[in-house]
Amino acid sequence: MNPEFQPGSAERLMRLGPVLGVRSKLLRVIREFFYDRGFLEVETPVRIPAPALELHIDAEPAGNAFLRTSPELHMKRLLAAGHERIFHMGPCFRRGERGDRHHPEYTMLEWYRANADYNDILVDAKSLIKQVASDILGGTDLVYRGKEISLSPVWERITVADAFKLFAGWDPSMKFDADRFDLDLVEKVEPQLPQDVPVILTDYPAEAAALARRKPGSPHVAERWELFIGGLELANAYSELNDPAEQRARFEDCSRQRRQLGKGAYPLDEDFLASLANLPPSGGIALGVDRLMMLMTDSASLDDVLPFRV
Amino acid sequence: MYTASDLRKGLKIELDKVPFEIVEFQFVKPGKGQGMYKCRIKNLLSGNVTDKTFREVDKIDKPDIEERELHYSYPEGDHYVFMDPKTFEQVTIPADAVGDQKYFLTEDLEVSILFHNGRAILLSLPSYVEKIIAETEPGVRGDTATNVLKPAKLANGFEVGVPLFINKGDTIRIDTRTGKYFDRVSKG
Fold first, then answer.
1. Total domains in the fold of chain B
2. Which one of A60, A202, A209, A306 is CB 3.0 to 4.6 Å from A67, fit for a cystine?
3. How many Å apart are CA B141 and CA A9, to the nearest integer?
4. Which residues face B153 on adjacent strands?
5. Which residue ranges form the domains of chain A, and what is each CATH number?
């Protein structure tokens, strides 16, 4: 890349007006969307003693604590305390994630509804995406990397089981193979999902959804969906797990697997675990704001939408 | 051993004892899933390019690869002899490692040779080499602006298309990547 156009170079920053304009507008549209629906915007600690325990997400150490990988654990404590509609937009930090679609520090939007599930969150997500596109692009049809996409009215919905049977030749909800799942998802399933409409890939195997509730009647499967638009993975939503015993067991299992892989152990967030007893059935979602920027600006890489890369 | 996070363009790795070079790579990580490095890798023995995806946790062998700058000396049977200008050591390279690039060798030509486990596998020539035209139809004066080419041959039998004004005995430069005429260095 021409050094003049490196993220952060003076020359590039001078030309970044249009991108900064879209970003500023996007933040405002998102906030207005949630304020209009009676959501509270909340802020949670950036530097925390116990990051969320995930097998493949590594937290950046910060002295004798860690930078948050997500605001989730604190937001659920707010939900459990009776604040029923909350959203959070701000930086999250992850080690070892760097590429066209990953940056060690990135902006995440998360929102939660008490007494709701992942279907209710889907209604929010559809409305939000359409609102964002209408306000920023003037309509719900757009082009992303040469693909013509209609964000309305149709959103395709396909289960992980069906998508894998169709595109990868096996059903991960019957017998889960983590390596094969991740590889086939990236190599076979994602590339063959429809590219001209938003796609909801839903009902992941329970092993691939540590913080989601199992589907009543289908214990192998969890109430989790992911949103893909034009091949870009944009959001991840759950019916949130609110069983304290099961959550603790999953955290402990995750710790064990992390140790086996030689990854750092994290303390369990006991305050979070205690709050689960009061957590009503809730739906929640995490959406990548920088990736949404990529979609809105037809950018192939975060290099094109982030003013600075570190 | 390399870890997946060491991977970068140009890195040489070994898979099942075969040396490869990473030509392209892309970091991907599905939500809640493991990080992976999707790579295009070039087999340094065959030249074939294939796709390979490494997981974040994978360890990859480092090949015993050495790159040496040598000067060409002369042919010998089904080998070619090169000299190391630093040690004056003579190094013989089998003809199959040189292949059709043999037509571009000239005495003292500086080349780069890749050795894998001590065995020469890849010869890299400079982008252009100078060669004398041994055979061609007489040059036509004044025709310097057209793109029309006529056949010509080097002493070693290599055929190259040259502009109409080139004469036998002229020294030309050939682009070693394409095997095509580049320009004239001097008249014969």
1. 3
2. A60
3. 53
4. B135, B159
5. 3-304 (3.30.930.10)
